[in-house]
Predict the structure.
Amino acid sequence: MENPPKKPDPPKTLWAHFCTAWRRANARRPFSFYLLIAIFIVALLGVQVVRVRENPKQFALFLTLMFVFFFAVVFRAILDCFDIWRRHFAEYERTFRETVGEETFVKKLGERLAEKEKK
């Protein structure tokens, strides 16, 4: 039995290429990238606090929202720091195991040190 010839895929449009690139870029971006954009937007919206000084309830609402957003950003920054710290030590451990942790490396290093001491 022969397989029928496969029909070729239609050519991709410029929009399809753009959508594919956008999806790939978004998959690589960390959550903190979006927080940086949100910080800019919240800062622009925070200018409204100046205009509502006469109304204490609105002022308190804006101030509360700004503090909630601030603490959310700080919390996320702390989580990112722990994530970076965890990845750093995992990479450090992997590098250690690949070099000093290998028996052959340690053996060769010991031989070289012994040769240097003899000289």
Q: What stands out?
A: The mean pLDDT is 84. Helices lie at 14-28, 31-46, 48-51, 56-98, 103-118. The CA atoms of residues 36 and 49 lie 21 Å apart.
